[in-house]
Amino acid sequence: MKFFVDTADTADIRDLAESGLVDGVTTNPSLIAKSGRNFLEVVQEICGIVDGPVSAEVVALDHAGMMREAEILRKLAPNVAVKVPLTIDGLKTCKALTSDGTMVNVTLCFSANQALLAAKAGATFISPFVGRHDDVGFDGMDLIRDIRLIYDNYAFDTEILVASVRHPIHILESARIGADVMTAPPAVIRQLVKHPLTDKGIEGFMADWAKTGQSIG
Question: Which ranges of the chain does DSSP label H, i.e. alpha helix?
């Protein structure tokens, strides 16, 4: 499963990229607003940090407006994936862009039917929001299972990009189901390495090493 980091913080992206854990980046208007920086500058900088897809979202809601904004975004770098909402106009834009060779991430997916439509429109990625799905009383992982089954039934090329990831269990379950990609905030990705027995083991090794009075180098 590919790991995308969901942030507009370039320092966090650089740090995680050095670990080899970052296959791509997702951004959205909310994350850009938190950065306090110019949207286009941030996207361009991120595209220079990672080789994989960098999702940059349009803010227009009509097809013509989305296409105008997409034209600007895809000129920033070859690894830009234009992110569009799961609406009729968004699907029209998806079809037009992917037919022209541009990667498209269809976002704000909350049903398997929506995911089916995105795949038929040629989406590169579909972003089901599991955390927000959980928030309103549904099981976000059931949504991923349904999408995986449907996509496998018809051999769709669209990759399932699990979004709105809140904790490591979301990542574990997504991997068990067979999602193609997950995107999570840097803090959640860093939580994956944590285990109390790992910490305890390191403490024990360090204590034993100190007793030897030796040093390496």
Answer: 10-17, 29-35, 39-49, 63-74, 88-99, 112-120, 130-135, 140-154, 168-177, 186-191, 196-212
